[in-house]
Every structure is written in C-alpha cells, then in structure tokens.
Amino acid sequence: MADRVDAELWFARHLAVLEASYTVKHQTKPHEQARSHYSGFLLQVNLPGTARQATMWITAGHCMQEIEEQLLGRLECFDDVRFRFLDMLHANAVSELPMPFDYLGGHPKAWLYHTDDRGTALGMDFGVIFLRAHDADLMLGNRLEPVGPPNWVKVPETFDHYYMLGLPGELVRPQGQGIWSAQPILIPVERLHARPACYQEQSDPMFYGVVDTQERVKSIKGMSGGPILGLKLDENGIGRYWFIGVQSGWYPPERIVCATPLADVRDILITGMQRMLEQDAEKEEMAD
Length: 288
What we know:
By secondary structure, the chain is of the alpha+beta class. 18% of the residues lie in helices and 38% in strands.
C-alpha cells in the first residue's frame, strides 16, 4: 500500500490538472456552484536547430472541446468561469495552493477530437496549451516536472508494464469551508494488441488496454487527458519509463481504455511551439 502511494506521488510530479470553477445557471431553481477537472501533464521539447526548450500542457481533445464549446460557449448556462492548475498533487510541492490560470489570456491553444458526422469518435484525441514562460516557470517553481524528450521521444516498441496516471473525479472531495482534497492515482493497464470490438468504428492508430482499478474507484471519469506510461526493466530489474499516450476513451462494461499515441502527434506539437515562439519574437520586434 505504501509503495503504491509513494509511486503515485512520485509520478504525480508530471501531472497538472486544470480546474474550472463556474456557476451553473438554472431557470426554475437557484444557481449553483460547480467544478470540473481535466487531467493533463507537462511536456518539454527541444526546438530543432536551437538550444531552446519550451513547455506545453497536454490533455485530451474532447476535454478542451468541452471547455471551449460548453463552459465558455454557452453563456446562457454557465457564468463566472475561472481556471487554475492543480500543480501541487505530488510529494515535493512547495505550495499547496493551486495556480490561477488565465485560460483566455492569449495562450496559443489547439485541439483535435476526430469524429465523423454523427459524432462517433474515430481515434485521435489530444489538446495542447503552449505555455508562456511565466506560467511554465510558476509551475516549475512548485517543483512540477515536465516530461523531457528522453522520456517521450524514441520510445521502445514494447514494455514490461503499462500504467495510467490521472485524477478521477470521484477522488476530488470537499472537506468543508472551501477546502477540497484531490488524490491522483496510478492504475495498471494490460495492453491489447488488437483493436477491441467496442472501438471497431475507430480508424486512427490508437493504444488500447484493459485497466485494473483494484476496486479503488468505480469510474476513471476525470482521468481523460492523463498519460499512459510504459515501464521497461533492464537485466538488473531497474525500470525506466516513457510517456507513450494521452488517455481519451473509456468503455466501462469491459474496462477498456484507448489513448492517442504521443509519437503520432510529436511533430505537430513541436511545429506548433515553434510557431508560437516565432510569433512572440515578431511581436517583440514590432513593439521595439
């Protein structure tokens, strides 16, 4: 038990959960306060041809679609939407206070949720916020650690163990007087090498696996956007891990998850970050 908790707190140093708090407006009863949480993690990239590194927040595309089209797109239903990052879910956090985040403050964002005309998910499902240096520095100052290229680039084809990391909604609980508790978890995953029947309508290459929640949670709702990890052991039994996917789909009857492979979106992410930095440099030149 202690080893499991220690591992969860250790890996949670990569986990950055975006929290949205808002007012739900009703017509026939009093308005109510609500919160939604979106698992995600930080990736660090080395920009080709330079010595520069940059940081981005990765989540599932359908999570960003919900934020953009529901919370921010339906003003008749939701009001006073505010965001902050839960960047203190790990063992070494300096501050236990979440970091306020200006979601609408000009951070370049992009998301892809590949569906057909009927809304059926076809696979690719990822979102990204390219973080400005100021916000990245604040999270790094709370000892949140981006996943560097050695842990998400040049990934082995097979692993000895697979895990899923995230924050299930049912483990975010009010403690009274505005205080909440949040417990991230690390769940074992048994990889499936063939597309399961419940995802036969998908056409994109995806990661599939069966999760073992060990009766810790009834649902993994809220873990979308968290990473899939692969652990490989050397001849001495020492493990090394890679982040290999972004968790996106969940089929409860068979406890099957699907995830977008990070390797398939690597070039898109690096190109997007380069363009953001180039645009920032152009704005600075114009300002001078």
